[in-house]
Amino acid sequence: MEQIKWAANRMPKNGDRQLGVMSLENVAKARKFHRSFPQYSVTPLARLDNMAAQLGLGGLFVKDESYRFGLNAFKVLGGSFAMARYIAQQLGRDVSEMTYEYLTSQKLRDEFGQATFFTATDGNHGRGVAWAANRLGQKAVVHMPKGSTKARFDNIAAEGAKVTIEKVNYDDCVRMAAAEAAETPRGVVVQDTAWEGYEEIPAWIMQGYGTMASEAAEQLKEAGVDRPTHIFV
User: Fold this and answer.
1) How does pLDDT run along the chain (233 residues), one tens digit per residue?
2) Under 8 Å CB-to-CB from 117, ≥6 apart: which residues?
3) Which position among 13, 63, 110, 122 bears the catalytic label?
4) 2, 52, 132, 200: which could form a disulfide with 57 (CB 3.0–4.6 Å)?
């Protein structure tokens, strides 16, 4: 077998002020939020022993997100948590109080009411936002770029969102969603990409994705792996 060439990462720690965004505390809040959903279950961590043996590795694991909330994708973790954090922020409360039970209650209707969450998508992120909005009694508007498939359009529409396929590319759909959100009373853009002046909600989306890492860390320990040497995303 041909030897794998590798190089050690010797870059010094740089004190990145953004590292706290994905702190264990923030990830734990995301995990607690997702656990409150009746549809929640830990997705499998598949162990590929035969492939590991062929590659000369001690172990190889794949996190299978096809089971996530029945949506066949992990993206719903980000959009749903960002929506919860936005609602918490508007109410002056911590996201740890934003359980599924509360977010679907009459008390939430009385205290917060309804917002309209705008996004652009190639498919999975928009479907996740639409799914979460539908479950939580909120509104969603989703714009898809030219060339988007009807199947993905139908999946998003089935969640009750207002969805369109535009004659422009993805970046222009993002601009369209942001502009419409700015012009809509209680409109909010929930986008999994950032730009100058729009960084808070994308950070919340990333925290939502942390649920995957939290689950995988527990599953690896159960498999006798204290710390993986490489992680591919």
Assistant:
1) 678 888 888 888 777 778 889 999 999 999 999 999 999 999 999 999 999 999 999 999 999 999 999 999 999 999 999 999 999 999 999 999 999 999 999 999 999 999 999 999 999 999 999 999 999 999 999 999 999 999 999 999 999 999 999 999 999 999 999 999 999 999 999 999 999 999 999 999 999 999 999 999 999 999 999 989 999 98
2) 79, 83, 129, 133, 138, 139, 140, 141, 188, 189, 190
3) 122
4) 52
Rounded alpha-carbon distances, angstroms, from residue 67 to 64, 70, 85, 105, 209: 7, 5, 24, 27, 15
Place of tokens 């969450």: 117
Q: Is 154 a catalytic residue?
A: no
Catalytically annotated residue among 29, 63, 75, 139: 75
75 among known catalytic residues: yes
